[in-house]
């Protein structure tokens, strides 16, 4: 991964500061790793203070040297949390009344420490502001996403040639992950918000590919234990069972998301038909995903197509269905836009999302597809393949 | 993994309720996955209300069927967050004044929703209570830990036979992880608190094995990108370089932690000597780790031994040293007790911790060892091997 140019960070900062000004904030404290990395180039343990105008103050708690090497901005060492007010004052950042914080993800314990440190300050959420800004990817980000997508395609090509009935889900997962790792997969994913014990992917065959779990997903697989209730199990993939492989591709800094469902000999006709409908939905939604369209409109289009095929009750889950058909990806796996029911987000060129129309048939399995797309003036262009 | 017996959950509940009573709490809401799993047998998305006495109320939001199958207690479906007060009232749980919550890890946003839902309630931390209770493992838990340790030993045996200079750190990591995964490794780890983008393990050769990062670890490796600043890189392991392999072993529900540092031909004598000191520290500390000793005493013993060998400034990091030599493991990777400077925790039989005396030589590499132990009346017994 080439380091981004300074101008990229200048642009990001400028846009963020415009938002702070529009919200009448004096500045913002940023701590979430992906937000911090987006604004500075480092994900080390830092507190970043962004004033509404002027240079940001990046305080590195650990590791200072690493943060200094990576950051686009000057870095100051932070010995202790309680030094923050003094360092702000030294930098001339005084009289702060209203500050932004990532209230969507901050733990209560950290919030209370900030409150005690800067008494009298009024706190406002800037999590939404940063998620909104990060929706639209720059050319450099798109290049990184294409690179990640190409690596992931290579892994899917590899696994497609290797799988055969008789392998366990776990064996298939191990093959996939091992090859991906050799290509530089991080072996982890970044997810904004709660740690959920999620692994980067799912392998699930037959009825397991219709199993739901605690996650806000249409399906999750069986898993190896109730404490890790998703993904591959020891189940043997039998001929006649659908096989679902759904992995986040995390190469370099950027994440793409992709699913392939293999429907071999003897797979129920219901699944084959649903698969065709899913492919049509993906292709139609991608065609319509142009600047100016809302995310909610795309969701409605997909649901209408599923209903027309008589498959509405299987779409995006069965019973408790999820109410989205896609989600943004980038530095995190769960970015904006979410292509969800009623979502008013207006698409713009450069937005990147995974589109995953899936049908779930309890006791039988699932059908569908997932690819990652970028919005262009001529509709969404597929990055994964 | 065999399902635990009902009596195990009854005992856990009873001990937890004794703590609630001692804190003069009317009950507690539990949401963190490992705490929930510990008390109920399910890690599905639930809200668990534990009254100070009597049956717990387990409300399953998603997935209800899965939670019902797994839980030791009766489960009620929860349609919406706002139904919680009504369901509490139905169960006769009214007049609640003081309730416990995992204030150490709860996100601010969830805390505010609870506050709005149950106005007038006074909230107290029960994160510490649960961490303290979970320190001491039952015979069934110890059996699960031994099983996990045996699997992990098999992976270390495998990798020890495969590694050779000329492999990249990433190749070694891929080999290790792939074999571990085949044996049932979850491919993830559970860490109480913030998602930190941590992968389950580190492979680092030469100077990389002395590199620090944002984590509260003596060393972290280089990694593949600044957004995932730990673990294996594309660096080739050369003869004469130390090679560190440090992985959490997560098989079934339980996590063990283990490190091996390979010092082959041509490795600097400083590292060899430090390795010997580390082995002596591990063995002495384990011998002394008996019921009644405090964690802080063990830490002091280790530091004194490092100092006597003239290696104090390399112990547990160089420059910004960490102030622990071990940490509890179990359902999470970062449990209690922490064998840390000044820690007053009194050891008891059945406590399980990873002990990891390590020496760091910037620019050169690291030496040391890590194993997982259980405290017994005759000192700590090694589980990993």
UniProtKB/TrEMBL annotation, chains A, B:
It is an enzyme of class 3 (hydrolase). The keyword Protease applies. Keywords: Dipeptidase, Hydrolase, Protease. Gene3D superfamilies: Creatinase/methionine aminopeptidase superfamily, Creatinase/prolidase N-terminal domain. The keyword Protease applies. Its EC number is 3.4.13.9. GO terms for molecular function: proline dipeptidase activity. Residues 144-377 form the Peptidase M24 domain. Residues 12-136 form the Creatinase N-terminal domain. PANTHER family: AMINOPEPTIDASE (PTHR46112), XAA-PRO AMINOPEPTIDASE P-RELATED (PTHR46112:SF2). This is Xaa-Pro dipeptidase. It comes from Neomoorella thermoacetica.
């Amino acid at each position: 991964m080439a380091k981004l140019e300074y101008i990229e960070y200048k642009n990001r900062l400028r846009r963020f500061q415009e938002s702070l000004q529009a919200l009448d904030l004096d500045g913002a404290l940023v701590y979430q790793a992906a937000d911090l990395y987006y604004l500075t180039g480092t994900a080390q343990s830092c507190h970043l203070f962004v004033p509404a105008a002027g240079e940001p103050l990046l305080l590195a708690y650990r590791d200072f040297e690493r943060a200094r090497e990576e950051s686009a901005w000057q870095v100051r060492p932070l010995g202790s949390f309680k030094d923050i007010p003094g360092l702000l004052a030294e930098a001339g950042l005084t009289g702060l009344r209203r500050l932004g914080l990532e209230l969507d993800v901050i733990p209560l314990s950290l919030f209370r420490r900030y409150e005690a440190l800067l008494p009298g300050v009024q706190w406002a959420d800037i999590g939404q502001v940063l998620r909104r800004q990060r929706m639209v990817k720059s050319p450099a980000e798109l290049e990184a996403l294409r690179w990640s997508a190409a690596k992931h395609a290579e892994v899917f090509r590899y696994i497609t040639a290797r799988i055969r009935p008789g392998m366990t889900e776990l064996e298939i997962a191990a093959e996939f992950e091992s090859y991906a790792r050799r290509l530089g997969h991080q072996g982890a994913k970044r997810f904004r918000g709660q740690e959920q014990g999620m692994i980067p992917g799912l392998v699930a065959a037959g009825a397991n590919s219709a199993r739901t779990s605690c996650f806000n997903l249409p399906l999750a697989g069986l898993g190896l234990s109730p404490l890790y209730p998703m993904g591959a199990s020891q189940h043997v993939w039998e001929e006649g069972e659908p096989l679902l492989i759904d992995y986040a591709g995390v190469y370099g800094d950027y994440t793409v998301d992709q699913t392939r469902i293999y429907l071999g000999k003897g797979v129920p006709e219901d699944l084959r038909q649903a698969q065709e409908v899913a492919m049509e939905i993906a292709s139609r939604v991608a065609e319509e995903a142009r600047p100016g369209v809302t995310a909610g409109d795309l969701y409605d289009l997909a649901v209408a197509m599923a209903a027309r095929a008589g498959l509405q009750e299987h779409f995006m889950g069965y019973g408790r269905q999820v109410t989205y058909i896609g989600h943004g990806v980038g530095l995190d796996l769960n970015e904006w836009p979410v292509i969800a029911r009623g979502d008013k987000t207006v698409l713009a060129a450069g937005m990147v999302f995974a589109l995953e129309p899936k049908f779930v048939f309890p006791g039988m399995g699932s059908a569908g597809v997932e690819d990652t797309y970028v919005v262009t003036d001529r509709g969404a262009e597929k990055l994964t393949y």
